[in-house]
Amino acid sequence: MSNKATFGSKLGLIAATVGSAVGLGNVWRFPNEVHENGGAAFLVVYIGCILLLGIPVMLAEFSLGRGTGLDTVGAFRRLTPRKPWWGVGAISLLASYMIVCFYMVVAAWTVEYLWRSLDGSLYAGITAGTSALEMKEVFAATFADSVQSVASPLIWIAVVLAINLFILLKGVKGGIEKMSNTLMPLLFVILLVLCGVSLSLPNASAGVDFFLNPDFSKLNAGVFVSALGQAFFSLSLGMGILVTYSSYFPKKDNLTTTAFSVSFCDFLVAFLMGFIVFPAVTSFGLADDGSGLQSTALVFVTLPQVFAQMPLTQLWSALFFLLLTIAALTSTVSICEVSILFLQEKMRFSRVKSVLIVVLPLLVLSPLCSLSQGVLSDFTIMGKNIFDFLDSTTTYYMLPVAALLTCIYVGWIVPEEFFRNQITNFGTIAKRVYPVVRFLVRYVAPLLIISIFIYQLI
Ligand code: PFF
């Protein structure tokens, strides 16, 4: 069955791809990375990584998807039949499914917190007399309960899967694109509202200083590796998502401008998040405790502490978790789509059958990941619980390997005209940009990825 689905408009295509890229990585990873690694100094390095690694890898993936109109395995198979290069797509496919297993768990926490902000139960244990320290303990205990309980994650995972199922069953245009067209503008509006609120808190400028204060003395090899890793995760490289979504791009789309727009929007969301998190956290004196700024603690413990001390607690809390839910949802849908398109193309299954085969097993697999943080924590793979094993194996090994091999494949293996035709739309646009892109894909991006591996080894 040839895949005829396409996005209906340029805006829809950008909204969907940005929706896929903007995820929890922007919200809980980026602000802390900037702060830990030299503030504005890190930003300069990070922007460099987007330009030298992110956009080239994205363009390599886009050209495979749009050029073949196929899924992440089929694209390699079509271009080099009877050669084992399809294995690169298979690594992405496998990694994407491993990621979705644990990412659904995090998405479930965000939806649970959204619900509990709306009904007020998240703040039920807090009174006017609760001290800052007690508050931290209350929220830490609430989060530990959510993570370790058996029933609650199951229910929320089922809710998240049902929403994913609903959208995915409606297809690419009627489901993914329509959802992105509605939710992404909403995400930006919420982001701006929360920025305004946070920046108007007392002592907000100290928070901005805390976030951005350029500290060039912190710049070392580790900072470069952090910036590369952040660009990697945030732009969803090596996950097969970009190949899959670009197979729905129209033939006349300018891939280079799309890659720039997507990367810019993804960066903007992450950057604006810093203006929400740091003024809020410093304003309530919560910034000194570095542990409170790290990923899960920041989102599920520190920020609820902030909201609890603000007027209109439930409103700001609900808006924040709605923002997070949108970010998570547009990402989970995109990562499921990788396997769905594969099943449609390779096995020739119908859309409905493919969606069910991809989503239904998650009803068991994601709860297993969730339980691995609680009652099943004794069950380990290579010394890690299932959740952490899936997270670290994909992030540190499978995604960089897939991206590296994709660059080598597009830059060195497939006939040169293929990449040129995709970037220049058969010689009609971007003719001057192409040599630069080709140089980045052939040399710069692979060397940067290899440098991450070398750094990790030593
Ligand atoms: N770019 C996404 C993020 O920053 O969260 C990465 C991602 C993770 C996308 C998991 C999709 C996904 F399911």
- Major β-sheet, in short? 2 strands, antiparallel
Q: Could you state the order of secondary-structure elements as H and E?
A: HHHHHHHHHHHHHHHHEEHHH
Count of distinct strands:
2
What would CATH call the homologous superfamily?
Answer: Hydantoin permease
Radius of gyration: 22 Å
CATH first level = Mainly Alpha
Residue runs with pLDDT of under 50 for 5 or more positions: none
Report the helical percentage: over 70%
Coarse morphology: globular
CATH architecture: Orthogonal Bundle
Number of helices: 19
Give an account of the 3D structure.
- This protein is mainly α and 458 residues long.
- It has one domain: Orthogonal Bundle (Hydantoin permease).
- It contains 19 helices and 2 strands.
- Strands 1-2 form a two-stranded antiparallel sheet.
- The model has no long low-confidence stretch (mean pLDDT 93).
- It binds 4-fluoro-L-phenylalanine.
Question: Summed up, what is this model?
Answer:
This protein is 76% helix and 1% strand.
Question: Can you tag this structure with a few keywords?
Answer:
about 450 residues; Hydantoin permease; 19 helices; binds 4-fluoro-L-phenylalanine; mainly alpha; 2 strands; two-stranded antiparallel sheet
What is the secondary structure topology, with strand pairs?
Elements: H1 10-21, H2 24-36, H3 40-68, H4 72-79, H5 86-118, H6 132-148, H7 151-169, H8 171-199, H9 204-212, H10 221-234, H11 241-246, H12 255-283, H13 295-308, H14 313-347, H15 351-359, H16 362-371, E1 380-381, E2 384-385, H17 386-413, H18 416-424, H19 433-457
Antiparallel strand pairs: 1-2
Helix pairs in contact: 1-8, 1-12, 1-14, 2-10, 2-12, 2-13, 3-4, 3-10, 3-12, 3-17, 3-18, 3-19, 4-5, 5-7, 5-14, 5-16, 5-17, 6-13, 7-8, 7-14, 7-15, 7-16, 8-12, 8-14, 9-12, 10-19, 13-14, 14-15, 17-19
The chain binds 4-fluoro-L-phenylalanine (PFF).
